[in-house]
Amino acid sequence: MDDLLSEFDLRPQPTAERPLLGLTILVVEDSRYASEAIRLMSLRSGARLRRADCLASAERHLNVYAPAIAIVDLGLPDGSGLDLIRSMAANRASGQVILGSSGAEREEAERQALEAGADGFIAKPVASIAAFQAAILRHLPSTLHPKGPREAAITAVDPDPLALREDLSHAMDLLALDTPPADYLKRFLIGLARGVADKGLEAVAHGMDDTLQAPDRAALRELLSGRIRAMPEPV
């Protein structure tokens, strides 16, 4: 894979307000809500963002270009993000930063990501733009850091509610399958619930049974449907 250092030499220089200016971030994330949060933080930081929602899509991206930073969710619909991290770590371009990410079982997820070859880990939800920037900058060479003091934004971002609606609808679609992917769905809902601080949904997701019998499916669908009905209608 091409060396990224020459690309770094040609990119716009980072500033205190936009410390990731000129960098390309590939986020491998199935949640539209989580992806929207990262998109907003990337824009505020000066980075370009590209998204893949599964392993197959990520592979297509990586066959075309080498992102400066990859943020890989561990729970993806077509497999484990750990496999992608291992593959990227074994074939990484010089200077490339690989970060694992998860909103479920975060301590164990971080351990697994680092063992797979990730440079670091971002727990979802990310608390603020400052935390997002710091999680990336600590793994970039000092020559790529903005010069002088930097006052980072400690505010959180506010993703589009339509992204949350799409995630809830996606979960309902999975529940309608003859054999729902219970383990994947559980992790998806835990991460989503934490992202929007929905303690009720998080508790239900933690208590999900691996078999997801019909009554449990019906109850969960009704819960998710209620969350959607309570949201403002899109304009």
- What's the overall geometry? globular
How many strands, which pairing sense, and closed or not: the largest β-sheet?
5 strands, parallel
The end-to-end distance, rounded to whole angstroms, is 45 Å
DSSP summary, beta strand count: 7
Point out poorly predicted stretches. none
CATH class of the largest domain: Alpha Beta
Tally of separate helices: 10
The CATH architecture designation of the largest domain is: 3-Layer(aba) Sandwich
Give the domain tally. Answer: 2
Q: What structural category do the secondary elements indicate?
A: alpha/beta
Give the mean pLDDT.
90
Q: Remind me, CATH topology of the largest domain? A: Rossmann fold
Radius of gyration: 18 Å
Q: Largest sheet, order of strands side by side?
A: 2-1-3-6-7
* Multimeric organization: single chain
Provide the CATH superfamily of the largest domain.
Answer: Response regulator
Fraction in helix: 40-55%
Structural write-up:
The structure is a single chain. The protein is α/β, with parallel strands linked by helices and 235 residues long. It folds into 2 domains: 5-144, 3-Layer(aba) Sandwich (Rossmann fold); 161-229, no CATH class. It contains 10 helices and 7 strands. It has helices at residues 5-10, 32-45, 55-62, 81-90, 106-116, 129-137, 161-175, 182-195, 199-206, 214-229, and strands spanning 24-28, 48-52, 69-73, 75-76, 79-80, 97-102, 120-123. The strands form 2 sheets. Strands 2-1-3-6-7 form a 5-stranded parallel β-sheet, sandwiched between helices. The chain has a two-stranded antiparallel sheet with strand order 4-5. Helix 2 (32-45) links the parallel strand 1 and strand 2 (48-52). The longest helix has 16 residues, at 214-229. The radius of gyration is 18 Å and the shape is globular. The model has no long low-confidence stretch (mean pLDDT 90).
